[in-house]
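Suppose a colleague, Dr. K., hands you the sequence of a protein chain of 634 amino acids and asks what its three-dimensional shape might be. Before reaching for any lab equipment, you can write down a predicted structure in token form. Begin with the sequence itself:
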Amino acid sequence: MFFERRDFIKILGAGSLASTFPGDPASRALLKASVEFTTSSPAQFSRKKIQTDVLVAGGGLSGVCAAIAAARNGARVVLVQDRSRLGGNASSEIRMHVLGANNHDKTRNWRETGIIEELKLTESATNPQRSFEMWDLILYDKVVSESNMTLLLDTAVIGAEVKDDRLTGVRAVSSLLEEYYDISADYFIDCTGDATLGMLAGAICMRGREGKDVYGESLAADHSDNKTMGNSILFFAKKHERPMPFVKPVWAETYTKQDFEHRRIYSYEYGFWWIEWGGELDTIKDNREIRHHLLKVVLGVWDYIKNSGEHPDSANWALDWVGMIPGKRESRRLKGEHVMIQQEMEDAEEYPDRVAYGGWPMDDHPPCGMDCTGQSPFRSIKFDKPYNIPLRSLYSINRPNLLMAGRNISASHVAFSSTRVMATCAAVGQAAGTAAAYCKQKTIMPRDITAEPERLTQFLQLLLRDDQSLLNVQNTDPEDLARNAKVTVSKQTKAGPASRVIDGWNREKEDGTCHQWQAPAEEKPWLELRWESPQKISKIQLVFDTGLDRVLYLTGSDGQYNAQIRGAQPETVADYEISANVNGEWKTVCRNSGNYLRLVRHIIEPIATDKIRIIIFKTNGDTLARIWQVSCFS
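The predicted structure, expressed as tokens, is then:
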């Protein structure tokens, strides 16, 4: 059953509702008057009914990737976001780094691919002004450009309807538009971060830190509790040509040199992740109190920088932006058919249903945050190799058509301390969105994918086709016509022979083996696929090199930004042409110039051909032309 605002008022009555709020008599009278006006007014919010295949709740990076993946795989999608912009903790409202498996380590080839790589590459190539607002716009453009997508911004999910243990619909509201939405769907994906949709639907939730006795984790707390990691607020500052004084508000915190024994102030332009607080409270219900306290902390830290005398070089610096929305690390998690734990991640267990991977350290923060400045602000345990994330951790154990992605997946607190970072959440989102679309196509539930080996294999090949990186899963897609072709080239290096473009691997493996074709770019090399008989082809898919051994993300930190290669990545092929031999004559079927993406798909008029030739004209700066993989489909 759905409840809406007017039902709530009818049940309590104006007097009862007013009496539940403390305050002076005038305030109570004003509240009572407003409630009475609401109940007596004939005006109501309008109501709209929407029917879709997949409902995604939450527009952070996990929700964006889930929605795009589902839409691109043929499902009708409604994406509901309670803010006016997409991106969650990565948006211009909060401005956290989009980090993942490769951490800040430039030597690791662990960067995620798929949709999150597409988003990062697009931002790097089209945002030379280094604007977080442009990042918001890039995400918006990607979402609204999908023909199967309906985006509802400024809209919050406030209710769920369940029948026979399955979700059948949600109630959402946009106070901005004064509209209610009754949205029915076949599959639902909770990307709210707080597991809000799952909670409303009665899905089993987990919260806080499990004790060592629960899963036998060496890094777990001694005893279970409801404490979490806290929230953070970031700031930006600018250097000016004259001294810029700062006088803190009377309500801001006061800090001394001793408070920064474990917290390094290394630059001024971009705030500090260790400005953290609220883990001993409820990071959902107490969010308003946490925000105010974090603002007290931010301004107290800035006051110390400006006025303590310990940082005299800060004289010409002034605050330029202070976040008003706390970046949330942890709240509720949903329990799935499998709960990921520390030991499995350390062993890099190869689950049969592995659909994404992570590699960020097990990075846990004390719940007390800035109240405990005498403690280290984090404990970080690195992995020797990336770990797998199973599909069974991405759907609810008691709501079979509810999937989840982001920081609310089925993991212990210790495991969550690694899976929580945004690039990992985004990769998980792509897996969940693809699963929802696949389930719609097959009329099955997510657990049915894992129950049948043949179906699971088909699903994993679908993920690989969409450039989702899976550890030690090879492309054996029977629909990929290129796998049966013979490859010839004009040139190749010893390290990058032509045969690698159809060997089933589209990135460097753990053993360091190169799985790409390489040739001198200045010689305009070509690569050709030949078949013994003509093949009907309507789609050609290329995977290029985008420097996965490096980090790539938008940041306000000058040091981290300047250490990156920005713009189009130099290894990536920029200009090329694809021709096909049709009835004995070569015909150009597509051209591309200025490319900066890793995965490029060309939809062409269906042709029957026994030869496809790719001619490379230019890279974005590298001396070698490089292609990881070529695929063709009818």
